[in-house]
Request: fold
Amino acid sequence: MILLCGIPTEEPLRMVRVQLDKLGARYVLFNQRDFGSSKLSFAVDRGQVRGELHIRGSRYLLSSFQAIYTRLMDDRSLPELQDEPEDSPLRLVCRGLHEALNRWMEISPALVVNRCSSMGSNSSKPYQCQLIRRIGFLVPETLVTSNPDRVSEFRATHGRIIYKSISSVRSIVHTFEDSDLERIERIRWCPTQFQAYVEGTNIRVHVVGERVYATAINSNATDYRYAGKLLGVPASMSPTDLSDELAARCVKLARSLGLVFAGIDLKITRAHEVYCFEVNPSPAFSFYESNTGQAISEGLALALRDAEHTSLWGIPRGEYETVLPASQRNDMAQPQASNHTF
Reply:
């Protein structure tokens, strides 16, 4: 069975559900907004895990899930908590449940798309760039600084440069213009990443296990995701083919980061140099699928459905007990080496 976690109406999750329905695959949906009627219990003892997930009155053994697709939003921002004080009991219950879910997913032997630990590299763009370079991709000349003078020197050396956030928080990539000099002093309180601009064709590559879906993007915007807003003309997208070597390298990159599913941002120059900017561990693939018709959601659904029959493409499994003893089913509060009940 498959476990889906998130908001049902969120487009990527909705599209995967549609494909699972077409495949006739069994799945359970944990709607974050139903946290008040959900409960997770598990105990860890000598490397074994026993537990249950309760959703809207139904009870599921954790061992029955062979695959998990999670697109959990920050639970602190759920509408149900909008008027709740920071330390309210309802917030504490919600936070505890989500923390327990993430802890369980870290040790579950299921195919998890994707574990928090594997997504961690995206929290530091400079760190992730070092990992990308190890796989053989080029990375733009980069400066992370809070010193305005260093930015001026970097710009003088490379000419056209761009800037963006160094964290996992989404930011719009902008070209550094003369007008930005008026507020450059602000970086003294907010270290920022600057990169030499690379001319070429943007390629977004979605990797699902061994499956590769490449999309070519045509746009004059520095950040094509916001082309419609910034230039009034949305980016155009079309499926494209990668060489076998490049496709294999993208798979290797995702696997090296422990990611079953990844969105890899490339740019290929006229000289056929391949630059990689970053790897998104929770890609909003619906943006690309809706513009190209590429069957990304189908590929993900197939990976989830077939999880128990795959080798997980080199992604490590955790230790897990596959059968929940009857004596444990009704009383999960018995003390173990480590016990979690939310």
Remarks:
- Residues 316-338 have pLDDT under 50 and may be disordered.
- The chain has three domains: 2-109+318-341, 141-196, 200-293.
- Residues 2-109+318-341 form one domain.
